[in-house]
Structure formats: C-alpha cells, structure tokens
Amino acid sequence: MKIATYNINGINGRIVNVLRWLQEAEPDVVCLQELKCEDNRFPKKALLEAGYHAIWQGQQSWNGVAILSRYGEIQETRRGLPGDAEDKHSRYIEAFINGVVIGCLYLPNGNPWPGSKFDYKLRWMERLQSHADKLLTFGLPGALVGDYNVMPTELDTYKPVKYLKNALFRPESRESFKRLVDSGWTDAIRKLYPDEHIYTFWDYLHNAYGRDAGLRLDHFLLNGILEPRLIAAGVDKQVRGWEHSSDHGPAWIELADLTGV
C-alpha cells in the first residue's frame, strides 16, 4: 500500500501536473492539501477518469483537503478537526481505506510570530493531539498524513538559523510535534532516514529548488499498529521541478500488506 501526501497549492491550476504525477508514481492513496477551490469546483471527474475516487472539503481561495483512493469508493469517517465549533477552516478530513484510518491534515502556518495566527496554530495542534489520542484507542491501523507546517529538527531545514523566528521552526511548534510523536506515533520518514537531510518544500524565491534549499514540512505519523508495516519512504523531488509546479514535492511511504508482516 503506497500512501502519498502532496500540498498542491491550487488543484485546478495544477491538475495537469497532478494527473501526470499520479500516472507516473501510481500511489494507492493520496492526501492533498491547499486545494484552494470551493467544493463544486473540485475536479472529481478528471480524477475518477484517472482511476481515483475522492472525498474533499474545499474552501474558496484558501486551505482545502482531499483524499484520493484507487481502492474504490471511500468511507469517510470525519470532516473537520473536533474541538472548536467556530473554526471554519477546511484543514482536516479522515477516511477508512483498505483497513487503515487515514487523517489528511493541513496544519496552520502560524506566521507571523508572535501573533494571533501563531496562537491559532498552537491551539490547532492541541486539538490534533486530543484527536490523535482518541484514534489510538480504536485498535485500528492509523496514519495522520499531510502538511504539518512544522520542521521538527534541524535536519529538516537547509539553514536552521534563518528560521529561529519562524512559526514553522519555533520551539513551541516543534515541542507540540514532539509531544504528538511521543504519545504513540512514529514519524515514518525519520524512522527510515534518521540522519539525513530530506526536504518536501522549496520556496519559489531565490532559486531555492535549484540550490536544494529546502524544508521538510510534510509528514506521515503512524500508530503502533501500522508502524511495523513501514517498508519504504521517499520524496518525488523531480515533480517540484516541473513547469508550473507547486512549491511542495509529493512525499510517500510504502506499507507491507497485513499478510506480509
């Protein structure tokens, strides 16, 4: 089972790239973030013709998350992160696919720090922690996948000193991420590559992609039931170099079938 995550930064404007990548990479499940389209403008037909069923939660101009699957119609289990009825941002959607609970998330950026946006980011992470704790009680394989807008360690940025005042690298954000991992979740990419610089984002400015001046913002957290099935992980970095690309590259993991464990 191959699960991917991709912050597409506007799905309709980059649908050609999405379809090309799906054909080349052949992921079984995809978590998408930053759709930047309303629900009625989501390209359901094009994705279905490519072999992928979809569920999504759009939002005009901002945010938006979706899950794609090659396993047929998707059993949606949650839309929106619990804990704040006033939060209308489209940042979390969850489904049960091929025996795995998959939460697709787009965590708030939080900049500028300090400020109300950073405070919202930390509150959102507290809500995510509460929901993640609940998922651990289900006794099912689970994954929390998406753009976390957090660089957990210095290995996750090409230049740590540049980001000391950035919400993505603030100690508060990193501690919230660490607390989430320590509560029973495994950072899949870091488990397989504990000492390597691995990036999933390259800014549009200053030839960041060409210089490989990247950040690792997109993560797969696996619960203790799913973690033993992890066999491979990577980033399709070349996609970031395609014309009219998102500033993120798709990241992916591969899981062994239950019979293979």
TrEMBL record:
Its cofactor is Mg(2+); Mn(2+). One of its GO terms (molecular function) is double-stranded DNA 3'-5' DNA exonuclease activity. Gene3D superfamilies: Endonuclease/exonuclease/phosphatase. Keywords: Hydrolase, Magnesium, Manganese, Metal-binding. InterPro entries: AP_endonuc_1 (IPR004808), AP_endonuclease_F1_BS (IPR020847), Endo/exonu/phosph_ase_sf (IPR036691), Endo/exonuclease/phosphatase (IPR005135), ExoIII-like (IPR037493). The record marks D218 as: Important for catalytic activity. One of its GO terms (biological process) is DNA repair. The record marks H248 as: Interaction with DNA substrate. The active site is at Y106, D147, H248. The keyword DNA repair does not apply. The record marks N149 as: Transition state stabilizer. Probably binds two magnesium or manganese ions per subunit. The keyword Repressor does not apply. Mg(2+) binds at N7, E34, D147, N149, D247, H248. Pfam families: Exo_endo_phos (PF03372). Residues 4-248 form the Endonuclease/exonuclease/phosphatase domain. Belongs to the DNA repair enzymes AP/ExoA family. This is Exodeoxyribonuclease III. The lineage of its organism: Bacteria, Pseudomonadati, Bacteroidota, Sphingobacteriia, Sphingobacteriales.
